[in-house]
Amino acid sequence: MDRGEGPEGEPTVDGVTSADGVTDVDAGGVALFVDGPNVLREEFDVDLDDVRLAAEAEGPLVITRLYLDEHATPGLIQAAEARGFEVVITSGDVDVKLAVDAARFAAEGRMDTLAIASRDTDFKPVVETANGYGIRTLAIAPGEFGRSDALRNAANGSVTLDGDTKSESVSDEDETTAETSSTQ
Question: How far are the Cα atoms of 36, 38, 115, 176 from residue 83, in angstroms, in the given order?
Fold first, then answer.
């Protein structure tokens, strides 16, 4: 899968070589990265199953990671793992670890789509980096009042969770209509 050129003209390669030297030419699908402290807040009442479904609507999941800080309760960790999430515990703010992991996945071409569930504008550079590698990006917001417009605008598509999962992505029909209108 040729990703073209990465950010700042860095060439990318077909396939992905893992740490053990195995190349996966068929790498693809959706990599879901969830900013736990910003999404799993009482005021949003987000269910991890809804986050997963929003990402799965873009294609098969290749990884589902939930990033939490050291204050996460054992019950939350256990519930996330039971739902198939790989839980990554960090000391302090989870943003840096999530951003580095997502950027690394993009650079290695380990996904076709990067889905980030957060309300944090700090992830805009990660979305822009993935876009630079030709990777589709999806911003998943925990609710209307927990949405980062900057993150949503940087991504190719967006979903706002508010009890029901709904896509705010521009549909192909809307895109065609917009293109027709702009050429007239």
Answer: 14, 19, 17, 38
